[in-house]
Amino acid sequence: MQKSIYIIDGARTPFLKARNRPGPFSAGDLAVAAGKTLLARQPFAPDAFDEVILGCASPSADEVNVGRVVALRLGCGDKVPGWTVMRNCASGMQALDSAMVNIQTGRANLVLAGGVDALSRAPLLLSDAMVLWLSGFYAAKSIGQKAVALAKLKPRYFAPVIGIMKGLTDSYVGLLMGQTAENLAQRFGITRAQMDAYSVRSHQRVTHAQDEGRLEEVVPVYDAKGKLYAQDDGVRRDSSMENLAKLKPFFDRKYGNVTPGNSSQITDGAAWLILASEEAVARHGLKPIGRILDSQWAGLDPAQMGLGPVHAATPILKRHGLSLDDLDAWEINEAFAAQVLACIAAWNDADYCREQLGLDAPLGALAEDKLNVDGGAIALGHPVGSSGARIVLHLLQVLRRGAKAGAPPRRGIASICIGGGQGGAMLVESI
Predict the structure, then answer these.
(1) Within a domain: residue 159?
(2) 208 tagged catalytic
(3) Residue whose C-alpha is closest to residue 384's, from 297, 231, 266, 302
(4) 382 an active-site residue?
(5) Catalytic: 89?
(6) How high is the pLDDT of residue 120?
(7) In terms of residue numbers, what domain contains 136?
(8) Which end of the chain is more exposed for a tag (fewer CB within 10 A), N or C?
């Protein structure tokens, strides 16, 4: 990169599991709650930002450009533009990438960027049949015409369409995201036991991280009734192979192995990072916690979308002459246990590396003690628009935790799979 892209600070809300009803916060509420705490500890006013960029995969009808809504609510003022980006699961990472590009080109020096989603508030929709019936009913002029229309109304029209199920379905290949995870499990011979064991480990690692105070980026939030939400609430401290074995496959009920227990949770949450140029660092006397060194987007077969991290991270490794083990830490978003395990398997598969990545040899095995050391989305949840920002922020926390005085900066890659057949990755280093 021609210019250094500094990460100054970051914060996120607790990730709150959707419990079959709308959660206590809208997407805007969550982004404001995390943003207020983050901005309160900065030496500059909110109107010092050049722009606010917020990733969101499922904005509500009354917060369509939620980035602008939140910028105004945070006190950034009328003159600071705010905008929203959407790249499915990587929307939060896309916000960081967009901020980085604008700093590189000189269009911005100080940017608030992150991601949010309140998936518990995903809408219930009317079916096409019901919409057509309503259209005909409201077009009817006379009482007789309305009576005829009422006679055509059928009980099945009232069945709601679950919005989040449509959102989690790839319209191009006609597969739910969990079905693409089943494809990867079959391709690499990943068993149900391996998936469940990985999931148990994720819950155990998050539990340990919470107990040890390692999730420093989480800021508590209060709802309108004054109830405190202090930490991620989807983690199961009693998670075990025995408990997970009781769950039935959800996406392929006859032959599958992907269950709700070895998949990420539907969750609400927000995450922010402050990005700055060298000029902004000097102007405001800032103390960066890290730098973004590189980023990459990749495309692949939508039916194999879970391998996106492999396709996005590998070019970064090649550009910087790095092996998997040269990095100090990795974050791969845990959309599904099968998906993360498939990424590990693909890098270690000679045929896949040669045919799909253009490599002469496999990259080898990714060390378990460097990957998602504090757990991931299987235990924390996956607020789709927020996760890409969360993994970058937490990766920096992990890198800084292991830093030693006088030692070289520690480096890591955060990578994420993206519905529709894409992958995103960022190489960062601690300061």
Answers:
(1) yes
(2) no
(3) 266
(4) yes
(5) yes
(6) 95
(7) 124-163
(8) N
